[in-house]
Amino acid sequence: MELRVGEMIVLGPNQRMHARTDGPCRWGSIRLSGDDLAQYGRALTGAEFVVPPVARWRPPRAALRRLRHFYRAAIRAAEMRSRALADDEAARGLEQQLIPALVECLSARSVDEETEAARRHRDILARFEDLAPKRPYLDIAEICGALGISTRKLRLACAEQLGMTPVSYARRRRMQHIVALRTR
């Protein structure tokens, strides 16, 4: 999914993704269990609160501004290494401000849910990523055989999700592996 300024992406439990940018960007993340989010969402909105496994939102500006404000406050507290987050009451207070802001952002209708084809491509890449460290020197035909997919499917998944060919991705993974071994 292409993400634009002012948008959010939600990943449900056990979801993996690859991210790439075409220029400068800033990312932030909030980790909350799906059950807790649904419970908070129901309590705050008074309605069933279901978040798809992967979706993109464009929340109202005011809601996003509030979420960013509380998010930055949490980051500042953590960076200062103060006892603010160690104190249960202070941490709970910050959480109680952050979660309603998150629910407000996610109460808007999602802009874009992941398509079935994109989910399959993401699954292919997750399996490819799991295979790469175990067998780093496979050629493309061997990779496809191990994954049980065609070369065309692997090429499409890599182009869509990574913006590169499977060979380029495998080469980068090997280089990262070599660098990691040398720095140990």
What does this structure look like?
The structure is a single chain. The protein is mainly alpha-helical. It has two domains: 106 residues, no CATH class; 67 residues. It is 58% helix and 5% strand. A three-stranded antiparallel β-sheet has the order 1-2-3, with no helix packed on it. Helix 2 packs antiparallel against helix 3. The longest helix has 20 residues. It is globular. The chain starts with 7 loop residues before the first strand and ends with a helix.
Topology:
Layout: E1 8-11, H1 34-45, E2 54-57, H2 61-79, H3 88-107, E3 112-113, H4 116-134, H5 140-147, H6 151-162, H7 166-182
Antiparallel strand pairs: 1-2, 2-3
Helix pairs in contact: 1-3, 2-3, 4-6
Which keywords apply here?
2 domains; single chain; mainly alpha; 184 residues; globular
> Roughly how many Å is the radius of gyration?
20 Å
Q: In percent, how much strand structure appears in the residues?
A: 5-15%
Tell the overall outline: globular
Total number of domains: 2
Q: If you average the pLDDT, what whole number results?
A: 83
The order of strands across the largest sheet is 1-2-3
How would you concisely characterize the structure shown here?
The protein has 184 residues and is mainly α. 58% of the residues lie in helices and 5% in strands.
